[in-house]
What does this fold into?
Amino acid sequence: GAVVSQHPSRVICKSGTSVKIECRSLDFQATTMFWYRQFPKKSLMLMATSNEGSKATYEQGVEKDKFLINHASLTLSTLTVTSAHPEDSSFYICSAPRQTGAADNEQFFGPGTRLTVL
Amino acid sequence: DAKTTQPPSMDCAEGRAANLPCNHSTISGNEYVYWYRQIHSQGPQYIIHGLKNNETNEMASLIITEDRKSSTLILPHATLRDTAVYYCIVRFSSGSARQLTFGSGTQLTVLP
It folds into this structure.
């Protein structure tokens, strides 16, 4: 089946630094990828939609200047958390839709990246 | 996308069937019912989806009521590895590359 990878799986950084998270679709192309954030014991919340070759679309309340998204190729989207602070500590998950039939589409999720900001 | 309601938690004995309910009373005629699960500290995993008819695959069965206002995910022989949060999601179109909107889900705990 289709696989979506994320790197790194876990990162610990100091407050004020920037962290880049990569999301790759390994055996299919994705013009769109989604970035979610999940706090402990909470559900996934959509942060933004990453669009290949154009600007990302951010959900209400998500700062686009803080969470930079770059979708430079059909298999790679990156999320950079700029000037990270402890409240940005969370589980970040990406997903990519893949056409699985003539009128069918399935979302494949990455394994997630655990960010801890000290 | 229609809102769903699921019980926050359920227990199931290992080897028994796990039946997870979901209410989606505002579902529209061309919205699909999807089920995903998330094992602790992992990304969500697709399980099954359906529109009107009952569906079965190697992981589970999906039973959708005739009025489509509710559905049940059935894991026929639950194992300890099935312990996870199960999300029932209703989407407008399975052909659309839209994001998924996650509710609170049901924490299923399979007991030895």
